[in-house]
Amino acid sequence: MAKLEGPLFSMGASGSIGPRLTYSKRKSGHQVRVQKAQTDALSAEQVVERGYYEDAIAAWATLTDNEKSQWTDFNKS
Q1: How far is the C-alpha of 15 from the C-alpha of 34, rounded, in Å?
Q2: How far apart are CA 53 and CA 59, in angstroms?
Q3: Nearest of 23, 24, 16, 19 to residue 35 by alpha carbon
Q4: CB–CB of 27/39 below 8 Å?
Q5: pLDDT tens-digit series, residues 17-46
Q6: Contacts with 7 (C-beta within 8 Å, 6 or more apart), sequence order
């Protein structure tokens, strides 16, 4: 979704066009930045590491509210 203010391709443009193209005014002048799309996990190590986080999140979701409060209270002290 476009959240751009001012005419497109003008010096007065600021904001974003979609998630990747951003117009801004800085001290050094006007800029247009393109954010690269993040790639998915490529190596076996990255896939394994992601699996650890998925398992931990799934385990947290199975805890009761009492068990969750015990964990959060323990980590506060």
Answers
A1: 12
A2: 10
A3: 19
A4: no
A5: 777 777 777 777 777 777 777 777 678 888
A6: 13
Give the tokens for residue 34: 């393109």
* Threshold 0.70, pTM exceeds: no
* Residue in 46, 12, 75, 19 with CA at minimum distance from that of residue 3: 19
Output the CA angle 13-14-20, nearest 5 degrees. Answer: 110
Locate the domains of the chain by residue range. 2-34
Ordered strands of the 14-17 beta sheet: 2-5, 14-17, 21-26, 29-34
> In this structure, are residues 32 and 16 in contact, taking their beta carbons and an 8 Å threshold?
no
Question: And the tokens for 70?
Answer: 């015990």
**Pairing state of beta strands 21-26 and 14-17?**
antiparallel
